[in-house]
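Hey, I'm writing a tutorial for new members on how sequence and structure tokens pair up, and I'd like a real worked example in the thread rather than a made-up one. If someone can provide the structure for the chain below, I'll link this post from the tutorial.
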Amino acid sequence: MLSRVIGPAASRLALITKRPSTLTNHIRSLATVSGNTPRMPPAPPRTRATPVSHDRATFTIRDGPVFNGKSFGAKSNVSGEAVFTTSLVGYPESLTDPSYRGQILVFTQPLIGNYGIPSATRDENGLLRYFESPNLQAAGVVVADVAEQYSHWTAVKSLGEWCAEEGVPAVSGVDTRAIVTYLREQGSSLARITIGEEYDADQDEAFVDPEQINLVSKVSTKAPFHVSSGTGDSHVAVIDCGVKENILRSLVGRGASVTCFPYDYPIHKVAHHFDGVFISNGPGDPTHCQDTVYHLRRLMESSQIPVMGICLGHQLLGLASGARTVKLKYGNRAHNIPALDLTTGRCHITSQNHGYAVDASTLHPDWKEYFVNLNDSSNEGIIHKSRPIFGTQFHPEARGGPLDSSYLFDTYLESVGRYRRNQAVLKPMRDSRPSPLLVDLLAKERVGVVPTTGMENLLRMGAAGEEEAAARAA
């Protein structure tokens, strides 16, 4: 099955999935791989770069107020869903989080950009040290005041320079308090950023709704990639719905090598080669990912493998279990949201970024609510009553902090270790460790992911993809 995804040149991968003892030893003797191959970043998409624009800028909420400010990013007009975050720090991590794809991010913190943008350096595992993905993911940026002069030992450029390089428009000098008040009262709304032009009410029909397209398909890898761990033998399959670098780091740093699959890959067909399955975060409406839901349902019907989901992965797990999801009025996006563990009675301060939630009242009797949001009482986690399967709506791995709930990765990997040991007793010849040949064949970086280019372009790309799929089906 893997060969179907990564191409004919890798058809030998079928040998790996069978892996009899003698073949495994033979393959290992032929390959010479030590440690993890550094993950080289793709060439920067300089065709999108524009000089930093300081023109007049307009932030327009559909059927709502219009805010006039000043541009400090790319000279580009975009449309998307306007959402806000109350995070005080961590703007490089937030803006590179694939969960923000298609959204115009409004910061409530009055001053943004004062510590600049760090370099795209990578750690010992080849993962980005300061970013959650290789590119800026948000469609646009809105702040009250931007610091064009920055100061930090890791900084190499300003926020405005970065936005211009990435082709993302940014607006400052607007009343973000009024924007957030409107969004809290009316809910997340469609909005536009227009650079250097007067607002034209006739353009209201040009607002693009990102919920019309499957955003996960835009941020998920198009073929498997692998990140090795030098400290353990566990092997986890990650369903990449827009996985953050620090999720991978949290797994690899705890001794689990990871192989990441496209979001719609039939994971139930290869799960027996792994010690655990992990479902990542991602953008948009979870109901767009019906293939993923089907594959997860088949997985839980056919395997006892441990499963963990975060954010969108948690929602997909809920859908696969038979529950429903609901869209929240304005979502939860912050680093200081209290979540109560219903199994222990302890409260954790969590980092969150989501606009949808699992409806806990629709859970199957085999499942129970794990965490609950103490601000709005929405669901923050579900757990199976008898099997090692759970999901959390919040981010235990949050790079900008807090790390109160990072122990959940330990809980998950403890169940992965137990499953691995049990399988070793039941199937003495089983070896789930990634072979050196597999490590050689698979990419070390997301494959075929297109950087954000504004919702108009995303919509055109989505329509083109649907037309191409229809043509192939015909």
